[in-house]
Amino acid sequence: MNKLLTLFTALVILGGLALAQAPADTFVYQSFSAGPVSLDPVRAYDSASGGILENIYETLYTFNDPAIDEFVPALATSYSVSEDGTTWTFQLRDGVQFHSGNTMSCKDVEYSLQYGLVVAHPEGAVSYLMGGQFLGTLADGSDPEGYQAEVSWEMIDGAVECPDGPDGLVVDLNITAPDPALLAILAYTAFSVIDSQFAIENGQWDGTEATWTDWIGRNVTEEFLQRNASGTGPYQLVEWTEEALVAKRFDDYWGGAAPIENVVVQYVNEQSTRTLAIQQGDADAIDVPERASLVQLRGSPGVVIFEGDLPDTSIDNVFFNYAIDTSNNEDVGSGQLDGNGIPGDFFTDVNVRRGFAHLFDHQLIIDEIYEGNGYVVTMPMPAAFLGYNPDVPVRTLDLEAAEQYFRAAFGGELWEKGFEFTALHNAGNTRRQTALEVIKSNLEFLNPKFRMNVRGLPWSDFLARTGERKTPMFALGWGADYADPKNFINTFLDNDGFYSGRTSVDFPEIQALIDQADSIVDPAERAFLYKEIGILVYDLVPILPLPEQANYLVVSDRLEGVYYNPIRSSDINFLWKDISKN
Amino acid sequence: MFVFIIRRLSFLPLVFFGVTIFIVLLMQVLSPYQRAAAFAQTEMQARNLDAIIEQYGLDDPWYQQYGRWLNQVRQGNLGYSRTSSEPVLTTLRRRFPPTLELALFAILPVIGVGIWLGTAAALNRDKLIDQFTRVLSILGWSLPTFVLGIWLLVIFYGALGWFEPGRINAQNIISIAGEGSGFERYTGLMTLDALLNGRFDIFWDALRHLVLPVITLAVVSSAQIMRVMRSALLEILSQDYVRTARAKGLQESVVNHKHARRNALIPVITLSGFVLIGLVNGVVITETIFNYPGLGQWAAQAAINLDYAAILGFAVFTAILVVLANLLVDVLYAVVDPRIRYD
């Protein structure tokens, strides 16, 4: 008994000397991620990395927070575009210092953009987002020889120029064709301005033609900028260890020193641990990936949940595969329209797609999965984006209409013979699973000869399976890289877009509008074209957009200045410099 | 003894090749696409899986992939862990000390409590203390670690605010961050480094952060030792030489503790070796719940990510550790039991 008493006393002494809450000069954010993939802007392409980079580095222009489609000067003070739209001239801000003490000038912008084009990292965003504009190719560095065959040093060198010399404050960006989304794309962290002197002195690419081929496709995660940074941002990196990432205020920041001195980003995998931390005041903001976990936080003293009208910038759809690989494919049954399977071109019949669209109950998903905090998506892009039109009609649950379309499909043969196939979702994603289950339920009710199986696969298996074009129907989505409709419309519907590799999507009417919208810069004209695309999506149902949930933020009530900008890379959606703490 | 140790150490290369080839072959069950896709957390990152496969040679024959890895190892490089975003060796070097620190703090209560209660139970067979330890060991065995861990967190952190998870608090993380802080990480063991730096505030804080994970491990792991100690001691107590010792008129405490318990320790030493290996390899759930940045947390994440280099590196590390720990246990046998000789 005495030993137990001694033990308890020791615990009380140890515990009783616990320190108070996180101090007022420190912002502690607990993320659910395992940590950044990279602090090198040309490699980073994940929210954990982006959430750090957007506070340490800066781009030429940035978002006018919390607006996602308004841009304000950052490292540039103004810009002009040549008459043909292919040369963008930026006037750089004078007297901007890097964390190292070096002064920013054109040579840093030139180095940063050229470094991205030289490395062309297949897992980074530079080639994907800007390769086409700067070099006329989406090729990347995964095949260095192939890249060299398409891209020359002259092309890279000519893409970014310093007309007033390397130490001047004017930079020209030369693109191959006018791009209405250029400013939005350049606001992405992949186009952060790196301290060229700091990078070169520490063994990164030396910025010359002599060595550029050595850096094509280089695994830059093993290089200096992976874990070291000298940007111009309001915070500078202090340390990144297995415990946390620590940053401190950059007092010489051109925009004035930020209110909070220290930032600690901790990577906490367990939700209950994060929940307790914010309840105890040890964290000022936490990630809560699952809405269901908010229950434990509601009513907690000191915890504020921002929710309501916080639109997300990701979109989920049900995708149809127009050229299913039916060989050795259990998901298509017999592979024939014989009642026991589906043929490879099953979804090319518009009546089939329209029929499926009328089996989906949008409101059910909003009520059951989003607890009422969601909205019907009229077009396959975030509602806050240019061109989104809430007046575009939506096909809703209507069994009579569905029957009518299915009866018309395949010349009436489909209704008589029936069919069976399997739709996939990534296991653990409740909304995607429920969306498919709702369709299945209504489909099988409509005609007992119609059978649809729903299967969840681990993420890697799911991606592999859909990538092999073996999946007839699947639920998947996209999160915004930049705030422009082409980031979604082209991704989902362009016959050369990301999803074309999984669905073989090819609608000439839609493609013509996409190409037209890509070639003009006038926002009003583009908005009109995207609305037209929205109407065609309603009519032809190339994909089936799912309702989106309204987002939420969980922060401490000691924070002031919190806002929600869904286009920000970080999962907390605001910049550290804009908040203060009492 | 020396020859014995050399002979046992000579098994190391065999273990190295056996374990690594096994893992490489096991990974081949998954398609290159699956292995590449494991790293793509979002659709955006899944954009270029073919390029990733090509860049990392994931579709090369297994022996080529293994050969590349061996070549790296020959140059003192265990590869790059995409899970920790740094070289595997660096991760092992950074994450082993926290795990070792936790293991060292945990092993004493684990073994101490196990032996103490196991002995008490055996000497008081079917009495209250025996029933109590039985219930305790059943609880320890059957209570899932994550349940116990979360309970402890909810009570001692959520309700009382005493012991927060992690390794040190945010304020101290800042105070020792970066070269400018002047805090030297001599050993990577936070408590020891804090003392060596003369930072008693950090020492105290690190100690506080160890309390809950150590209690969790002690409850779970000492249950096994408790039961083994009890049954071993009961068996020894019925041996002739124990009866002889009593007949000679030796005090009961001398018979029990000097003659009987010492021999009963042999199976406990074996078990303790394995418990220690388990602790030093990283205790996944405990480290995850208490956000303790050790090897277990990393290895579990690496396995989920199919992080080839990390899995191989961790396996090599574990294999070496197991061989060395077994060797240590064998040597300890000889120390505890003079009858055992390895000549």
Summarize the SSE layout with pairings.
The complex is a heterodimer of chains A (582) and B (343).
Chain A lengths: L1 H15 L9 E6 L15 H10 L4 E3 L7 E3 L2 E6 L5 E6 L13 H14 L6 H10 L8 H7 L2 H7 E2 L8 E5 L7 H5 L9 H6 L33 E6 L4 E5 L12 E6 L3 H10 L4 E2 L16 E5 L6 E7 L29 H8 L4 H7 L5 E2 L23 H10 L4 H5 L1 E8 L3 H17 L3 E8 L1 H9 L5 E7 L6 H8 L6 H4 L4 H12 L3 H18 L2 E3 L2 E2 L2 E5 L2 E2 L19 E2 L1
Chain B lengths: L1 H8 L2 H16 L4 H6 L11 H8 L5 H13 L5 E2 L4 E2 H36 L4 H15 L2 H15 L10 H7 L13 H7 L3 H38 L2 H8 L4 H29 L3 H6 L5 H10 L3 H29 L7
Antiparallel strand pairs in B: 1-2
Helix pairs in contact in B: 2-16, 6-7, 6-11, 6-13, 7-11, 8-11, 10-11, 11-13, 13-16, 15-16
Question: Care to describe what's here?
Answer:
The complex is a heterodimer of chains A (582) and B (343). By secondary structure, chain A is of the alpha+beta class. Chain A contains 19 helices and 22 strands. In chain A, α16 runs antiparallel to α18 and α18 runs antiparallel to α19. Chain B has 16 helices and two strands. In chain B, strands 1-2 form a two-stranded antiparallel ribbon.
